User: Fold this.
Amino acid sequence: MKRILAIFALAAALVSCQSLIEEFEPVFTANYENPPATAKVQLEPNITIADLCAMYETNNPWNIDQNLIIAGRVTTNDQPGNFYKSLYIQDETGGIEIKLGKNGLYNNYRPGQMLYVRCFGLTLGMYGYKSGNYGGQGMIQLGYEDPTDKYETAYLESSYLIDSHIFPGETLDPVKPVEITESQLPRTYDTQATNPYIGRLVTLKGLKYANEIFCLIYINSNKDKTISANRIFLSDKTWGVTTWAMSKKKFEEYFDSKVWDTATIGNSGDNYGTLAEPNSPGFATTKEEIRAHSAAYSVSQYFKMGNTEIQLRTSGYSKFGDYEIPASVLNGTATVDMTGILTLYQGSIQFIVNSLDDIVVHE
Assistant:
């Protein structure tokens, strides 16, 4: 019996399920002066990223049982803290997220470096899909099988799993982004199999601020985050947020300023009071209770590229999250160019930059 339990514990240690990641969970962003050298190998890819993504069926994650190998260059850098436990690679057909489940990935996987991925035994799934008129596609990912079936993929958190599937190759110069126009942006039903720019490093030019944010606040971050009475949505306007995102400290500054006091608790159509006067039994009945237990996810600052809405999604743990957005951007007298990873979430375009250097302001 003890032997069985020991084997079970070892298996459980090899993989952990993706959880609802708290925005204020620490992210390792230290810089080593001499990062350890990684062994360079070269495998022979036998399928492109786009063709691999074409094998995914909606709501049907695939535990890959074929000897498929993809290759791509790293386009993300988790050192500034805006990417968490994953990286993106791209080839000439598209890009894909690899869920490695570790911080400090930049020490072993450098921007521009070739990575070879042995897909046999991994799971091809999607995050961010929503059906219906106001939904759409999410992002196809490579990860591990989620034994809880709550998500379509889980992280590869053990070194054994990572080293069995991910093989660093030649270190090259960082990838040069491709500039795309509004007409080349993905539609709600696109995936990496149908739009070659999804998941890739691209540049969008001439974006104007849309005077709107999205931020989800949990009344009690230690309790069920799917229940309406445990949610506050900041959307449809700026709610006084003038920073790219917010650290825990900045979050509390906004909270204490009372600029959010009129925000209502609950999903659309529900009413559990406001932040100032909550009425969410089981979660909080005073503002002080909310402040003691609440937490927020990343902030999406909305921009417009022509007539298309772009959500610039920024982590509260990024090194630049608390930086003020230039006043000229907020008042509409300046435009911005952005370079980052183009993604979809429920059919909406989300854009993720590596660092603040990827945002250029034109006064």
About this structure: The chain has six helices and 19 strands.
